Amino acid sequence: METNNTPRLVRALRNAYDQKKGRTELEGAEAGFTLIELMVVLLIMAILLAIAIPTFLGVKSGAYDRGAQSNLVNSLTSAKAGYANGGTYGTTPVLEQAALSSAEPNITFTATGSVSQASGNSVSVNVSSDGNQVLLVSYSQSGMCWAAEDNEGAATALTNTPSSQGVQYAHWAPTSSACVAVVPAAETWASHF
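RE: above sequence
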């Protein structure tokens, strides 16, 4: 006696297929994100951006200031080396500009001219007529003027500069979008930036 198992086998396969199909449809219905889940993710991203953007802008502004300060320190070092070799700074801004331009070719020097954001990597130079005092001013793209001054003489010859001998530093917000090698009257000087 031979039994026909074919209908039983077909039924078993059909049941297995129907169960798998039902499970796949159920999984497909739950596979996506809900609107609330997407909104939570967007909210978290917005909070992170609100924290990151001001931090980035603060770092960028500080980097601009450090670039201007670096130009001044390099220029002042070259000017002091020239003073040590010759016993005097240039007696006119043009002479000191020429000396600094040859010593620091990567920086553009102007003799008592204005330096601005458009000037890029530049420093304005002013000297006293006796050659004992030099004033260097640079513009930072953050919108600040930075100055370094060295007085090797007994008296102050440049307007609004410190009366004490040695190196002094200052910074101020310009009234226009440029800085000139002349310091505002109310400026305070310090021994570091």
